[in-house]
Fold this protein.
Amino acid sequence: MKNTFQLIAVIVMTVMLTSCSFLGKNRINESDDSTWKWSGTLTQDVAATHKSTGRTVLKASFLTLTGKLSSAMVEGGVQQAMKYCNLQAYPLTDSLSKTYHVSIKRLAAKTRNPANAMGPFEKEIFDTYDRLNAQKESIMDQVVLTKDNYLEYYAPIILTNQCLSCHGNPDSDIKAEDLALINSLYPADMATGFKPGDLRGMWRIRFMPARQK
């Protein structure tokens, strides 16, 4: 199980090197709260099943996007990849959300897209991850049932060396033309100045109850 999550973590970090904000918004409509409310309890079986599904969704996201992003990187480097993420990736992730009956969102304390901002409960989980990561302790994915009765999967996003071209030091890691594009696409960007090993953010996958799919 641990090896499985490590594989997913590598996949997620690989996707992150393109600095996409394709999951910055909940494209699946969550406005009808009753559709997403979970009426059961969080048993060990429920947690295990949905943790497995969460990992599957992340892996599917990678398999869906990696080919397009790799082609964009070959064609035009970071700038081409960022343009693809900004304009073209929403329909792909919409499809995954509908296939798995989930809402997929990426969250960060230092956001690039303001839509990635956290609520209070999400910030508590992030702060715990951040504290454990700073102490060099393992941080793992988890399934939680919120006080508002949402069943959600969380997985940390750890920055790697490959991510520095978009999230590193603006004076040394990010090319001037790439930084200009970032600032153009995301005027309120705060997502630079990271180092490898930093907690960049986390994924949140909200599950729709089976009876309401």
Summary: The two ends are 28 Å apart (CA to CA). The chain is about 50% helix and 15% strand. The helical segments are 2-16, 33-36, 44-87, 90-100, 120-134, 164-167, 176-185. Confidence is low (pLDDT under 50) at residues 1-19, 21-27.
